[in-house]
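Board notes, transcribed. Complex of a protein with zinc ion.
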Amino acid sequence: MTPDEPAGAPHVPGCSEALVLLMGFIDGELAPEDIRRVEDHLAVCPSCRAEHAAYRRLGHAADALATEEVRVSTEHAWERIYDRLTRSVGWVLLWVGLTLILGWTLWELGSEFLTDSEVPMVLRVGVGTFIGGLLLLTINFLRERLYRRKTERYDEVIR
Ligand SMILES: [Zn+2]
């Protein structure tokens, strides 16, 4: 022992070997006899015990970091799914709602007019077909909007 070495940190023979085995020991990759050698050495060597504790803390920190990364990317994915879902559900609701409102309104206005025998037949047929055309165009327009939404989302994925 040289005079400048502190008395509290004894250099037990086998330190370098124990340190080489330490990472494998922490990862559980050692053969049983190597595990026993490291355990025996840690039992008698405070400086290697400190080293072992430090490595383990480091390992836990790395695990925590990896878990955090997975959590963040999962959250992001859910956000995107939620965003797309609400968008397409919104369009479907809009489509159905507008069709119902428009259909009901036109039916209410039209049915009385169309069954009124005072109104000339040609005018009744004209108004009837006009209402039918308007409804079809509305449905078609909204379907197109919905379809374009889907296509835009497809492009987003490709990009
Ligand atoms: Zn040691």
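Residues 114 and 121 are 9 Å apart (CA to CA). Residues 1-12 have pLDDT under 50 and may be disordered.
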